[in-house]
Amino acid sequence: MRVLGIEGTAWCASAALYDAEADSVLIESNPYEPDSGGIHPREAAEHMSEAIPAVVDAVLTAAEDGYGPDAIDAVAFSRGPGLGPCLRTVGTAARALAGALDVPLVGVNHMVAHLEIGRHRSGFDSPVCLNASGANAHLLGYHDGRYRVLGETMDAGVGNAIDKFTRHIGWSHPGGPKVEAAATEFAADHGGDAPDDLLDLPYVVKGMDFSFSGISSAANDAHNDGVPVGEICFALQEHVFAMLAEVAERALSLTGATELVLGGGVAQNDRLREMLATMCADRGADFYAPEPRFLRDNAGMIAVLGAKMARAGDTVAIAESAVDPNFRPDQVPVTWRNDAESVAVGARSAGTESGAVRPEPGDPAADLRGAEAVVAVEPDAEEPRVIKRRIPKRYRHPKLDRSIRRDRTVAEARLASEARRAGVPTPLVYDVDVANSTLTLQYVGDRDLATAIDGGEAWVRSTGRHLATLHDAGIVHGDPTTRNVRIAGDASSGETGSGRGEFGSDRDGSEAERDGTGLSEAAARTALIDFGLGYHTGHVEDHAMDLHVFEGSVRATATDPDALIDAFEAGYAAVGDRTVLDRLREVEGRGRYR
Ligand SMILES: C[C@@H](O)[C@H](NC(=O)OP(=O)(O)OC[C@H]1O[C@@H](n2cnc3c(N)ncnc32)[C@H](O)[C@@H]1O)C(=O)O
Ligand SMILES: [Fe+2]
């Protein structure tokens, strides 16, 4: 099969020929380069109208020269996401070409194409995919017929976050490569890879999501304050890429996947690829990033995915081929893969998103390695204890690494104790060793909620009550996934469990009421652990994010999430502030979230 692909979502007018039998890709591209500022949608669309016919012509001519008049079996085009005026130009060209050649038309999601090209070239079976492109940043895993969003930016795309700074200082678009050059030069002038000085910038990871808005503004402010540009570029890369590497590691840990592929324009950055390669090597995972011509926007990735879709019969009638500027990757029915290739999303996985691996006492696996910490149980007969050590990450700048591990260790100890005083069951903190980022904690519960989510209404409801109590005390958890909720008892039988993993709060015994399932909460008790990403805040938005993170982990884990989410929200509403639930609806409605 041979497919002609057309790309033109924003800046790159491109056509390509993919010959599936030979697995060869010919790409012709013509970039739009704004004189100043960022991408102007109208100018970009004009560029598409002018440049698309020429690149298509060049590829078509080459195809017919090589294979004769019936060279093309299908035409594939980027249907979205992207700038509306650009997408419409490309859509029109693709429809006309498919009609003239009398071949099927395939509508490709640009984000899925960024990831599939890496999977295709690597030959990996079930990778987690990190997309680092201009307008987007997310982690995806194929599961049950869809690409699931495991984590994503809460605001700007990664390239745009960097380009915002370069626009501020007057550099032309695209800024990413210039930041890379300036950062490399700064490092070379300051003693190699890791100069001691690292400008402090915001580092924001919330559960599996992350935010770049604060870092762009802080970089701009640093420039206004006279910090040298090279120093800012270096720090910008170290912070932004460490955030991506951290969430990628969490996604690997959550799913138990052992393969990571990278895609998107920012993936051309050597430092980002180096960090991800180091992270993967340290946890025994395989890493793959395709060569640069497949990373930046290009029609090759559109043609390759187009061929997979066409082979699966996934073509589109001209009348139904409208473009979609907001086309999300998780909206795409994945017709070209089979279920055997799914990554485990949720409970079936062995790993964890953060330090929450909790071997049972006496577990032969003395040390288990989460994404962030190594956790060992001391099987003391009287009272089992957990020793949790946040281990250094080689991929991070040493200064950033030290401060992250120290800050989270301190936050976890302090907030767990404060939460406990406010009435939320958490482990007692026996010892804090800040220098070694190590905590000694009480062993709580029997197992984590992720392992028993189905039918766990009573536990979920209890979790809702605890989060409401926590928020009422002005604290957010920051990472309240089902793996960071420890449970005891049996929600379906009302048994109180073995009692081995005792837990409680300083106001224990106050919630013996019966919930909607007829079970007493004393029979389905929960404790919150892992406060490392927590902080003090009274902002409704931050509280709503906690609920969003929890509900996201329930959706990813449960067979029938709706009833559980209702129970969770009922528990929250019984104790907490209803405006937080209203804000949650608003957060979900913003489109970035499901
Ligand atoms: C929707 C679609 O139009 C959009 N495409 C897009 O943003 O172009 P892409 O080629 O995937 O990525 C471009 C971004 O990639 C950045 N970039 C290119 N080379 C870079 C480098 N060496 N280091 C850092 N960023 C780089 C650019 O600054 C720019 O922000 C997307 O995929 O989000
Ligand atoms: Fe892109």
From TrEMBL:
Q: Which residues form a coiled coil?
A: none
- The answer to whether keyword Iron applies is yes
Q: What terms describe the molecular function in GO for this protein?
A: ATP binding; iron ion binding; protein serine/threonine kinase activity; protein serine/threonine/tyrosine kinase activity; tRNA N(6)-L-threonylcarbamoyladenine synthase activity
Which positions does UniProt annotate for Fe cation binding?
H110, H114, D297
Q: Which UniProt keywords apply?
A: Acyltransferase, ATP-binding, Cytoplasm, Iron, Kinase, Metal-binding, Multifunctional enzyme, Nucleotide-binding, Serine/threonine-protein kinase, Transferase, tRNA processing
What does this protein do, in the record's words? Required for the formation of a threonylcarbamoyl group on adenosine at position 37 (t(6)A37) in tRNAs that read codons beginning with adenine. Is a component of the KEOPS complex that is probably involved in the transfer of the threonylcarbamoyl moiety of threonylcarbamoyl-AMP (TC-AMP) to the N6 group of A37. The Kae1 domain likely plays a direct catalytic role in this reaction. The Bud32 domain probably displays kinase activity that regulates Kae1 function.
Q: What is this protein called?
A: Probable bifunctional tRNA threonylcarbamoyladenosine biosynthesis protein
Give the organism, scientific name.
Halorubrum laminariae
